[in-house]
Amino acid sequence: MADIKEVLAKSALFKGLSDAELDQVLPLCHKKSYTAGFSIISEGDAAKDLYIIAEGKVIVEMNLSVYPGMVQEALIETVPSEEPFGWSAVVGSRVYTMTARCAEATKVIAIDGEQLLSLFNGSPAIGFKVMEGLVEVVDARIKSVMRTAFS
Amino acid sequence: MATIKQALAASELFKGLSDEELDKVAALGRTEVYEKGTPLFVQGATAEHFYVVELGRVALSLNISSGADANKEITVEPIKSGQSCGYSAVKGMPVYALSAKAVEPVRVIAIDGKRLYDLLKEDPVMGYRVMSRMASALSATLRNVRSTIQIFRR
Q1: Is-contact B72 B64, C-beta < 8 A?
Q2: Going by CATH, does the domain composed of A4-150 fall within 3.40.50.720?
Q3: Which A residues, 42 through 61, put their C-beta within 8 Å of a C-beta on chain B?
Q4: DSSP collapsed to 3 states, A18-78
């Protein structure tokens, strides 16, 4: 697995950070490895960590209320390397809104959401750059979801 | 009629900002009025302005551009008074991801996206606070787009 700093520097969320800023994020990160099929996060669980994929692929799924009392799980999209998932750990209700399952053996960087928010509050310039990265990621994901659905 | 500053102070995105911060944002805004059925912006059009709804209701929708359902418009979420839309314009994304239309007479504050971005960037305390709220609102829209598409395809 590549060095954590190297992965962060290439990731959509952290690519705008300087070398010194990346060093401040590093102590909050942990490498984790999972086998194919493993669910890293589950919809409805308390959102503790934000994840960046270092190697592998993750499928995100969500539950849909098809009829009252009938819920089905729907495959939504595949998240590739260097992309984030689980950002409910730093925005919104702090509850995961998706289930993320490994499509293959996958290595991720898990970043503690509470600690990351503390870092942002102490260093808002870092917070601004990461949040603008997140806005960009989410905007791009809206466009790609629509392209995939109706192409 | 509320001033631009008052409307911004009451909005989800800018509430809690200091008087001075609100003044800076208000200086970039202008009031616009849209009749029922009028588009504020259209999916795929160049994203220049970001909108804060002061009064009335706007529908965010996606337009299907190809396939059997081409030209259909599906509502993704309502944007109510105090909420915002058109985030693509702030982060410099070239085009709007979705369309926005007035579903009743609406009054909005239109803000030049690039100038707002520059302001947020030069003041990271305000920038972080506002950008974080934008990320949160946009994430909710992504969830709504995903579920709208899944339900539509069933």
Answers
A1: yes
A2: no
A3: none
A4: CHHHHHHHHHHEEEEEECCCCEEECCCCECCEEEEEEECCEEEEEEEEEECCEEEEEEEEE
**Distance (Å, rounded) from C-alpha A35 to C-alpha A59?**
13
Q: pTM of the entire structure?
A: 0.92
Structural domain including B30 reads 4-153
A32 neighbors A108 (Cβ within 8 angstroms): yes
How far lies B135's CA from each of A58, A144, B66, B152, in Å? Answer: 21, 17, 29, 25
Interval A112-116 mean pLDDT: 97
pLDDT confidence tier of residue A67, bands split at 50, 70 and 90: low
pLDDT at B112 over 60: yes
| Domain spans, chain A | 4-150
Min distance B90 CA to chain A CA atoms (Å): 9
